[in-house]
Amino acid sequence: MLNVRNLTCIRDERVLFENLSFSLGAGEALRVEGSNGTGKTTLLRILAGLYEDYEGEVDWALDEFPLYVGHKPGVKDLLTATENLTWLSALQEGQVAPDAVRAALAQVNLRGFEDVSCGSMSEGQRKRVNLARLYLTRASAWILDEPFSAIDVSGIAALEERMNDHVLAGGLLLLITHQQLQLDCAVRSLRLGV
Amino acid sequence: MKTLLMTISRDLKVAYRNPADVINPLVFFVIVISLFPLGISPSADVLVGIAPGVIWVAALLSCLLSFELMFRSDYEDGSLEQMTFGSGPFILVIMGKIVSHWIMTGLPLALLSPLLGMMLFVPPPGLTALMLSLLLATPTLSLLGSVGAGLTVGLRKGGVLVAILVLPLFVPVLILATAMVQTGIQGGDYTGHMLWLGALLAIATGISPLATSAAVRISLSH
Questions:
Q1: In whole angstroms, what is the distance from residue B100 CA to residue B106 CA?
Q2: B108 vs chain A: nearest CA distance in angstroms?
Q3: What is the C-alpha end-to-end distance of chain A, expressed in Å?
Q4: Complex-level ipTM
Q5: Contact B158, B68 (CB under 8 A)
Q6: Pick from A26, B142, B170, B181: CA 20 to 30 A from residue A154's CA?
Q7: Number of neighbouring beta carbons within 10 Å of residue B129
Q8: Rounded CA gap, B54 and B68, in Å?
Q9: Is the pLDDT of residue A95 over 90?
Q10: Taking Cα atoms as reference points, which of A183, A171, A177 lies closest to residue A141?
C-alpha cells in the first residue's frame, strides 16, 4: 500500500535520513522510533503529504487520504466536541451520522462532554476529541504522531485495542510513540538517527 | 459543494461565538471615516469631494485588518492541516473560507456604507453607487487578500507583510470603485465601471483560490 524509495530529507543543513526505503502493506504496522529531533515527525509529515522539501519517492496506493493525527489537536476551541468531530469527520468521510458521532465520543470516554466547547476542556480531552475519529473513519491508512501524549492509562489501553483491530482488519498503521506499546499484531520498527 | 457549504457554516459559527473578530474591523471603518470631517473640514463641498476616496481607503484598510484572521487560528490549532485531508477538493475548502470572510467583512461594510456616505454629505444617487461598488468589489478584496493571508500564515508577524503583498493588487479596484462613486455623485451612468469591477471579480475568482490553496500548502510544509 505504501512504497518509499530513496527518501532523503535535509533540514537546516542536517541530514535527517538518507536513502530511506521501505514498503508497508495492508495489515502491517510500523513504529517509527528515535530520540527527539531525529526526524520522526518530519518523516510522518512527508508521508502524509504535508511536507514537501525532500528527495525520493513516496507512493501510496490508496483510494482515499490517510487519517493523520498530528501534534496539534485539530479542534477549534470555540466549537463543541460534537461540532468539532462532526466537521472533521464530515470533511474527510463525506457523510457522518449524529449517532455515530455520539458513539465515538462515548468510546473515548467523553460521554457528557458532547456539548462542552473544546476551549474549556483539558489538553487530554481535546486530544480525545481528535482521536475519536479513529472510531468513525473508513480510511485504510492511519498516520498517528504521538497519539498517546496527554492521554491517561486506560485511554491508552482503549486506543491500543482500536489500533489492533484496525491492523488485524487489514489496515495500515504508522505510529510514533515514546510509550510502551502493547499490540497483539506484529509491529515493525524503524529507528531513525543512528 | 457540500465541502464548500460545510466550511462556510463552520466559519460563521466560529465567528458568531467570537463576534469581536468581526466587529473590530467594522468599528475601525466607522471611526476612520468619522475622523475626516473633524480633521479636514465639516463643510459639505469639501467632504463630498473626498468621500469616495475616504470611504474606499477605509474599507481597504479594515479588510487588511481582517486578513490576518482568515487562516491564523485554523493554522495554530491544526484544523488547517486537517483540511488538506478532505475527501472533497482542498480548493473548495479555501473557497468556503473566502466566502465566509466576505460575509463577515465585505458584506457588513457594504451595508454600513450608505450611513457613512450620508455623514459625508453624499447625495442619494452617490449612495447607491457607493453601496453597489462595495458589494461588487469587496469580494475581489477577500479573494486577493486570501493569497497574502495564505502565504504569511506560517509567519509569526505576518500583518505588515500581508499589506505589502496585497495593497498593490488592490490599486485597480480602488481606482475603478472610487471613479464609479464619483460618477454616481455627479449623477452620471456608471455601468461601465461596474462591468470593469465585475471583470476584476471574475478574474480574481478564477485565479485566487488556486493561488491561495498553493500558498496555504507552502505555509503548512514549513
A1: 10
A2: 22
A3: 27
A4: 0.88
A5: yes
A6: A26
A7: 26
A8: 23
A9: no
A10: A171
Yes or no: say if B137 and B197 are a contact pair by the CB < 8 Å rule. Answer: yes
The nearest CA of chain B is from the CA of A71 a distance in Å of 8
List, for residues B25-75, the tens digit of each pLDDT value. 999 999 999 999 999 999 999 999 999 999 999 999 999 989 988 999 999
Distance from the Cα of residue B16 to its chain's centroid: 18
Chain A CB within 8 Å of residue B43 CB: no
Domain tally, chain B:
1
B13 and A72 in contact by Cβ < 8 A?
no
B82–A68: do the CB atoms touch at under 8 Å? yes
Residue A144 with chain B: CB contacts under 8 Å:
none
Q: For residue A130, what are the contacts with CB-CB under 8 A and spacing of at least 6?
A: A69, A73, A74, A75, A88
Q: What is the CA radius of gyration of chain B?
A: 18
Residue A129 in contact with partner chain B when CB distance is under 8 A = no
List the grid coordinates of A160. 491500543
Cell of B13: 459559527
pLDDT digits (tens, 9 = 90+) for B112-148: 999 999 999 999 999 999 999 999 999 999 999 999 9
Three-class secondary structure of residue A192 per DSSP: coil
Cα B146 from Cα B157, distance rounded (Å): 16
Tell me the H-state helices in chain A.
40-48, 81-93, 98-107, 123-131, 153-168
Judge contact between B181 and B56, C-beta under 8 A. Answer: yes
Cβ–Cβ below 8 Å for A64 and B78: no
Instruction: Enumerate the β-bridge partners of residue A57.
Output: A5
Contacts of A117 in chain B (CB under 8 A): 17
Total residue count of chain A as it appears in this document: 194
Chain B partners of A94 at a C-beta cutoff of 8 Å?
A: 2, 87-88
Give residue B205's domain range: 2-220
**Among residues A49, A58, A62, which one has the least CA distance to residue A138?**
A62
C-alpha dihedral sign at A140, A146, A151, A154: positive
B124 Cβ contact partners less than 8 Å away, ≥ 6 residues apart: none
Q: Which amino acid is at B73?
A: S
Neighbours of A183 (CB within 10 A): 16
**3-class DSSP state for residue A3?**
strand
Residue A64's pLDDT is what? 85
Q: Quick check: helix, strand or coil at residue B222?
A: coil
